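Researcher: Here's the sequence for the chain we discussed earlier.
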Amino acid sequence: MFPGIATSVLPVAANEIENRAFFGGDNLTNQATNRAVFSAEVAALQIAKTANKVVVQPGDTVLYRITIRNVGNVNASNLTLTDTLPLGLVFDSKSLQASLSNNSNNSQVSVSATQSSNGSFNVTYAGSLAPQGTLNIVYAATITPDGMRGNGRNLAVATAGSARSNTASHQLKIRPGLLSNCGTLIGRVFVDKNFDGEQQPGEPGIPNAVIYMDDGNRIITDTNGMFSVANVIAGNRTGTLDLTSLPGYIQAPNLYRIDKNSQSRLVKLAPFSMGRMNFAVTPAFGEERQ
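Model: Thanks. This is the structure I predict for it:
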């Protein structure tokens, strides 16, 4: 600008470059201003995460809702959501749903999910998210007993090419519930060759044996004749061997303990403890004592 000409200086916007030239020494009123205005075409993402519960306990299901908004001025393509669940939460892939919201329209869209070994999973949307459009993702997760050892904090971030969103988080408070009064039962069904009720080397386990618990649970032994039951409510627990599930075998007599000469076993299970139930059988046609 030149002396005698009145001018006003406009505020500088974030997407403007301003160049100034000064005349007349220290006279700051004599200045010339040149602005170059540019508009960068980029996709920018914002993400938020909520859940239908804040306090849960093992066995509960929590429903997460994630909103991803394109606040840029071009389409966001090949969008990927990376979600990291805390320890003890299991992603239910069958519950996954997604929809697009744009200009008051809401439509269902198809997304795919892949899980990784570190507890995180990726949700990919192959379409494009228009400027000011929103991708809504909903899924369920189940809280397992391991959740008591985790921090309950869930983290999620979205990317589309070079665009990366903020990190959204949600904090769950996981209470022990009934599991605070639970223990674990283990046991084995085996061939007792010396009739002492204890398994020694050379006494094989019996697979596919059925044990019925006092609470109605039906347990089947594995290939080594072993079984385990987690989250059993503490107290006096009873298990009964179903001999009809073992054709060709009968209950083995115990020559040392009378209380073991029964198809049932009684275990007093303390909270957070482990109890054992072993069941000894022998071939129905008899076998020599060793």
